[in-house]
Amino acid sequence: MQVLTGATLIDGTGASPVPDAVVVIDGERIVAAGARARTSWPAHAELVDLSGLTLLPGLIDTHDHLASHGYALTKRWGLDEPASTTHLRTARVLEQTLAMGYTTVRDAGGLDAGFRLAIEDGMISGPRLSLGLKIISPTGGIGDSVSPSGHSCWIPQDPNLPDSVANGVRQVRTVVRTMVRAGADAIKCATTGGASSRPGHGPTDAAFTRDEIRVLVDEAHALGRKVMCHALGGPGLRLAVEAGVDSIEHGCYLADEPELITMMAERGIFLTPTLLVYVYHRESQAPHVRDRARALYERHLESVQTALAAGVKVVAGTDAGGHDHPANARELECLVEAGMSPLQAIRAGTGLAAECLGWERTVGTVAADRLADLAAVDGDPLRDITLLQRADRIKVVWKGGTICVDRRGGRVTAADERAVRLRT
Ligand SMILES: [Zn+2]
User: Fold this and answer.
1) What distance in angstroms lies between residue 358's CA and the mean position of ligand 1's atoms?
2) Which of 135, 177, 300, 375 has CA 20 to 30 A from 192's CA?
């Protein structure tokens, strides 16, 4: 039994910080947490003094692409290096992400179930994973990876990342079932184009019919999976909200249709704005991508602010991968810039993020019966949210009660190389 003492606790529920808190861990779970005066522990427990640090739930990124390493076609199609090299690159990203205090990540496409197995078996270190596997869309949608010349990649289909193009209700149902068979924890789909999609299929261009998206949601829910739907604006965004997806990913043009925001609040549909990816796209080399990202910037901020004011649960996701793997906590800084308080942003990346995944009984908050996934930070992230981007400030990370990163003695871990890379 471990008893963490002396830290200021931010528990992930949105409650005010508790100074001089105690967190009691038995095995992989938290058994008690709160103010020292109101928390007891057995005499034989091992005491861990965290005075001067801030203790948070392990952070959660609800939208990442851990196995993606750039938007270039050669990267997307896996042409520029052997698959084994790419897999090892991905394993390094998983290790570094955990070492930055991210103990849970939902992958929105590209990471196969073998990585989850390797982490669970202890072969590699990494966050707990909720996997979307592939983006389901109709022909011409963002799940349809065709080159600008109209050609398809001839590299054989990886059975662990099944074909995700589906047309008509029968195929949609089959593809959802195929994703679940291949190990999907969540169903990722797209009802609009995006900033980085091909010319002619942009942020407000719809994909899927009402019947197709309804069947997708119906089948996913029947199999106990949440639906995370990429939708930026226009009729495709409306279809997704009306069909009852569980989260809208991006939602850049929500402000154009305030009644959709009301509907999201009433139905408990989450918004994952992924602000960080559009920071990147605004400087894209591709003119059509750059123009789209710049055009949506103001509306996106307004959409996030209107959604927050209406009571929509707004959560943190980076959409990292295409834009490399920067510190995931940069999204929390973006959310603060968009109008959240630092405490709200931390909740968006912990307690609310866990709810978005349907994992709120397991992770995301520091409370009895939750898994002991925790991060101890040097300094006060409520004063400076950017502390969470700095490896030298993320002093200790626990996953399931086990310390997986400990930088208290100034020890440099392999994952710290990432911080060096980020600074240069
Ligand atoms: Zn994405």
Assistant:
1) 19
2) 177
Residue 318 DSSP label = -
CA 244 to ligand 1 centroid distance, Å = 19
Ligand 1: distance of its center to the CA of 52 in Å? 37
Phi-psi region of 358 (alpha: psi -120 to 50; beta: other; left: phi over 0): left
Rg of the Cα trace of the chain?
21
Q: Which pair of structure tokens corresponds to residue 217?
A: 């949601």
Residue 4 · residue 23 · CB < 8 Å = yes
Buried b (16+ CB within 10 A) or exposed e, 216-234: bbbbbbeeebbbbbbbbbb
Three-point CA angle 122, 123, 125, nearest 5°: 70
134-176 pLDDT per residue, tens: 999 999 999 998 888 889 887 788 999 999 999 999 999 999 9
Residue 108 Cα to ligand 1 midpoint, Å, equals: 6
- Specify the amino acid at residue 140: G
Residue 176 region by backbone torsions, left for phi larger than 0, else alpha for psi between -120 and 50, else beta: alpha
Between the CA of 319 and the centroid of ligand 1 the distance, in Å, is: 5
H or E segment to which residue 131 belongs: strand 128-131
CA of 189 to the centre of ligand 1 (A): 10
pLDDT in tens, 172-203: 999 999 999 999 999 999 999 998 888 888 89
3-class DSSP state of 363:
coil
The answer to which of 75-89, 100-114, 367-381 has the lowest mean pLDDT is: 75-89
Dist. CA 18 → ligand 1 center (Å): 35
C-alpha 382 to ligand 1 mean position (Å): 28
If you measure from the C-alpha of residue 262 to the centroid of ligand 1, how many angstroms do you get, rounded to a whole number?
24
Placement of tokens 């009433």 in the chain: 266
How much distance in Å is there from the Cα of 389 to the middle of ligand 1?
21
Distance 65 CA to ligand 1 centre (A): 6
